[in-house]
Design brief:
This protein is α/β, with parallel strands linked by helices and about 750 residues long. The protein has three domains: about 240 residues, Growth Hormone, Chain: A (Up-down Bundle); about 230 residues, Rossmann fold (3-Layer(aba) Sandwich); about 220 residues, MFS general substrate transporter like domains (Growth Hormone, Chain: A), CATH 1.20.1250. About 65% of the residues lie in helices and about 10% in strands. A hairpin with a 2-residue loop joins strand 2 and strand 3. The longest helix is centred in the C-terminal third of the chain and has 52 residues. The radius of gyration is 28 Å and the shape is globular.
Length: about 750
């Protein structure tokens, strides 16, 4: 308690708030990723709502700072509110499928995503944002000479929250245990701040509120297991068997009428047994090859594919790659005896590796490569449908070898949005393979081979191979093939896809699937939005940059005419810097997901390192004393930092291709994780230094410090929200990550030019 006594009440409050806010942000983001299929576009929406609500709370508290700064009791009441709001937020997310009547495995529309994100973040974020503005005002009113103490305290608390979550909470305790530990910390701090407690005549509303929160936490600790079980039932329904978090995703198992269904990050992956899907997933590809002996299976082996492979005569070896090492052990108790026996067959070699890493490192060649990784609707899935991945696959195929995979399609008709999506995959495949063939159906199946191979679309030729190999199949017969591969259906599919020959090639850092995914949502949600997205899809890059250049020139000319005051340029710089820092966090998360294939666990470390960087940057500047004769020195330093922020995205544009190809073989996933976290740390340091210097520079213009903190914090968060919305919903899907980085550098450059005009 002596240590607590040495810390000013506002600093202790905001440090606790920072800790709680970061832990809450990571938990809520992970929970919403499960609800939203693990889709990274939804992460941008969640971040934007989080930042806007926090900015609103901070902005309002800054506006009313003179009225509320004397009421330190309000700090304690708001802090106690956090202890109740955090568990309620998680329960609300898990109950969202009940509230919005969403069946398990159904992706919410963009509208419902927005409603849920706004509602969830609206519980906690305004409170944490308001605490920042109030703490800043009280801190300054007390005459403290450390103007950045509140920002530094919030950053330190956030850094501690992220690091403790990653290294302690994540590997060792459950979600609700983490929540109750965090709430207990809040109550310990506020219990000390609410002193004295006795005599009873001193007990007031704040004390009673603390007691109510205390009993809530005690109840939560006692019933933590049951609470988790009940809330998971809300989330998945009464058929739930088990839920497990891994580094790759959240895995949920549901059982109904003897069939086990597997969901990863809320997305249906497969059901078992499902002989129809298993037969189509194996035999259509192997029938394309005259004599398949060596097979590479990328995912899906335990869905029945291994059993079907052994029906083919002459199979000598099967290499089965399953990226997540926790996946098979979790499902093993629910596998059929035949599937379990196929895993033990000596011809099967199981590899727990990322498929891209496996393809890059192995020297083996295969007659047939089957991929069963799910539709490319996220960065984690999209990386298996890019030009770079297809090139790795081709290197591992024998002469005349067959590569096959399937994505969702339509039995009879395809809409223009889905046809554009399929056309993009076809265009990408043709960049690597000279021969391709597409079978229509509910699952659109792609086949590809080199120039020495031969792809069959004649049902009678396929039926002849079934007969020669004596295959006893239920769902692949001559009559079914005759209907599925009728010339009418093949010609219809071909004509539809030929209308979209000009679609962009899908690349690792130009993930076209994002935009197609967004357009498919829009088709279900609103016709006007779909038309707007179609316009964006046709918007050429040169027109985008022409419009940006024109807007930038106008802004610079206005500032250089001397009309806006210098403090407007400083405020604009804070807004732009907030946008750049937040978009870079999105880029780091996406980049790591693209390169390594998982980010579900890594996002905690990337966020933690960013917050640590903010604390380091703000702490360094806070040691500088603000004096009148040093105002110009702070201004010069502020401009230099803005220059570095302008150059950082350009450096990343050069850096990403190196770690993607040249140095990728020498970097393990753990090393890559620390590397991306280090980049996040550097970004955080620049952000902390920039914000702190902006406060110093603005104070030099004569604005009272107690009015700067909350306002600048709100402005920083508003910029971050605007940036992440524009990047996640427009720039990254349409123009890719490299152009996004160029856009960030351009924005920072415009801000720099407005600052160079001076006061």
């Amino acid at each position: 308690m002596r240590l607590l006594s040495a810390i000013p009440s506002p600093v202790l409050t905001i440090t606790t708030t920072g800790f709680v806010a970061t832990v809450a942000q990571i938990i809520i983001l992970r929970e919403l990723l499960v609800l939203f299929y693990g889709n990274e576009l939804s992460a941008g929406l969640v971040f934007a709502c989080w930042l806007l609500w926090s900015g609103l709370g901070s902005g309002l508290s800054a506006k009313w700072a003179s009225k509320i700064s004397a009421h330190t009791t309000l700090l304690r009441l708001l802090l106690v509110c956090l202890s109740a709001v955090l568990p309620l937020s998680v329960l609300f997310i898990r109950a969202a499928r009940v509230i919005w009547t969403l069946p398990a495995g159904e992706l919410p529309s963009i509208g419902k995503m927005l409603y849920i994100s706004v509602a969830v973040t609206g519980l906690l974020c305004p409170v944490s944002g308001a605490l920042f503005g109030i703490c800043w005002a009280i801190h300054r009113r007390k005459g403290v000479h450390q103007p950045l103490g509140i920002y530094l305290g919030e950053a330190l608390g956030s850094a501690a929250g992220g690091l403790i979550f990653y290294f302690i909470f994540l590997p060792y305790v459950s979600v609700f245990t983490t929540i109750w530990i965090t709430c207990g910390l809040i109550l310990c701090i506020t219990g000390w701040l609410f002193r004295p407690w006795w005599p009873r005549s001193n007990l007031r509303f704040g004390h009673l509120m603390w007691i109510a929160a205390f009993f809530l936490v005690v109840w939560g600790v006692v019933s933590v297991s049951r609470l988790d079980h009940v809330s998971r039932r809300w989330q998945w329904g009464p058929d739930l068997l088990a839920v497990h978090d891994t580094a790759y995703h959240n895995i949920a198992l549901l059982e109904k009428e003897g069939q086990v269904s597997v969901f990863t990050n809320g997305l249906w992956l497969f059901s078992q047994p499902d002989r129809l899907s298993a037969e189509y997933g194996v035999h259509l590809a192997l029938l394309q090859h005259p004599d398949p002996k060596t097979i590479l299976l990328l995912g899906g082996g335990i869905t029945g594919l291994l059993e079907e492979l052994f029906k083919q005569p002459g199979i000598r070896s099967i290499d089965y790659v399953e990226p997540d090492p926790d996946f098979i052990p979790l499902l093993k108790p629910h596998l059929s005896p035949a599937t379990d026996a196929s895993l033990q067959d000596p011809r099967v070699r199981l590899f727990h590796q990322d498929p891209r890493v496996f393809l890059r490192r192995t020297n083996a060649r295969y007659d047939v490569i089957l991929m069963n990784m799910g539709d490319p609707i996220t960065a984690q899935m999209n990386r298996f449908y890019t030009e770079e991945f297809f090139a790795h696959v081709k290197q591992r195929l024998s002469s005349g070898g067959i590569f096959s995979f399937a994505v969702s399609g339509g039995e009879s008709m395809l809409g223009s949005t889905q046809a554009r999506f399929l056309g993009s995959i076809k265009t990408t495949l043709l960049q690597i393979f000279p021969q391709t063939l597409i079978y229509p159906g509910d699952q659109i199946r792609f086949f590809a081979t080199d120039i020495s191979g031969n792809l069959l679309s004649d049902y009678s030729a396929l039926a002849q191979r079934i007969f020669e190999r004596n295959l006893q199949l239920t769902y692949i017969r001559e009559d079914i093939l005759q209907d599925a591969l009728s010339p009418f259906r093949l010609d219809y599919l071909k004509s539809i896809l030929e209308d979209f020959r000009g679609v962009a090639v899908n690349k690792d850092f130009f993930p076209v699937c994002y935009f197609h995914n967004l357009m498919m949502w829009a088709t279900q949600w609103h016709e006007v939005l779909q038309k707007y997205l179609n316009i964006l899809a046709d918007l050429k890059l040169r027109w985008f940059w022409t419009a940006l250049a024109a807007i930038g020139i106008i802004i610079v000319v206005i500032f250089w005419t001397g009309r806006p005051q210098f403090k407007v340029a400083v405020a604009g710089s804070v807004f732009i810097s907030g946008a750049i820092e937040m978009v870079l966090q999105m880029v780091f998360l996406l980049g790591f997901q693209i390169i390594e294939g998982f980010v579900y666990r890594q996002l905690a470390l990337i966020i933690a390192f960013f917050m640590t960087g903010l604390a380091v940057g703000a702490g360094w500047i806070s040691r500088q004393c603000l004096t009148l004769d040093r105002t110009n020195a702070f201004r010069r330093r502020f401009i230099r930092v803005q220059t570095v922020i302008c150059l950082l995205p350009i450096g990343l544009m050069l850096f990403f291709p190196l770690i993607q190809e040249e140095f990728r073989s020498f970097l393990s996933p753990a090393t890559m994780g620390w590397l991306f976290s280090g980049l996040s740390l550097i970004t955080g340091v620049l952000g902390g230094v920039h914000f702190a210097l902006a406060v110093m520079v603005m104070a030099g213009t004569g604005v009272a410090l107690e009015k700067i903190g909350g306002g600048f914090y709100a402005l920083d968060l508003a910029g971050a929200a605007a940036g992440v919305l524009m990047a996640a919903l427009f720039i990254i899907p349409v123009y890719g990550i490299v152009n996004t980085l160029a856009f960030l550098s351009f924005l920072s450059g415009i801000s720099l030019l407005t600052l160079l005009r001076g006061p």
